[in-house]
Design brief:
By secondary structure, the protein is α+β, with helices and mostly antiparallel strands. The chain has helices at about 5-10, 25-35, 55-70, 75-80, 105-120, 140-145, and strands spanning about 45-50, 95-100, 125-130, 155-165. Helix content is about 40%, strand content about 15%.
């Protein structure tokens, strides 16, 4: 199997990271892969923010938990109350991908995010593509945390990639043929 296709087939969402930080060289390769993603009209309408500050990641996760509790939805409340709840699954590094809000920027950001997850897989690192954290920035506590990002004017985070060593690196390739239709 071609190496690129093999990496795509092996990529999976890691939800149990080891505490060990990833190497700087690996981080730089992952960021470079994100920055090489396809963009509409070559706008490169994203901004990447790398967070390796565990206290900041914990605070964002706590803000997400507060939003879940405030939602009044029992299943979300229960999830936020779980002792192991952490929006980023205790990953030591999280790359936040922010949009400038322009046309096609969400697709540009999604492409960059996917490229980073594939690069992590190629480097034998775990990753998880996350969007649920954006709820944190709707909460009073989260709005204050967002200021720490020092984003360019007009940008807002939309996706994140949690990165680290997977505590269970085994994988199983899943088939999903029923999700494909053909018109020939």
């Amino acid at each position: 199997m071609d190496r690129a296709i093999e990496v795509m087939m092996k990529r999976r969402s890691t939800r149990n990271f080891l505490a060990e930080q990833i190497p700087e060289e690996s981080l730089q390769k992952i960021l470079a892969a994100g920055l090489q993603a396809a963009t509409a009209m070559n706008r490169q309408s994203w901004h990447l923010t790398v967070v390796q500050d565990a206290q900041l990641l914990d605070a964002i996760s706590q803000a997400v938990g507060a939003v879940l509790v405030d939602s009044g939805v029992p299943s979300l409340n229960d999830r936020a109350q779980e002792p192991e709840f952490h929006t980023f699954y205790q990953a030591p590094t999280v790359v936040f991908v922010s949009t400038d809000g322009s046309s096609y920027s969400l697709a540009d950001c999604a492409n960059a995010t996917q490229n980073m997850t594939l690069a992590a897989t190629a480097l034998d690192l775990g990753s998880c593509y996350i969007g649920s954290f954006v709820q944190a920035f709707k909460h009073k506590q989260g709005k204050e945390l967002l200021n720490r990002f020092s984003l360019p004017i007009g940008y807002r985070p939309v996706f994140a990639v949690a990165l680290g060593y997977d505590s269970d690196p085994s994988f199983e390739i899943k088939t999903r043929e029923w999700k494909v239709s053909y018109i020939r």
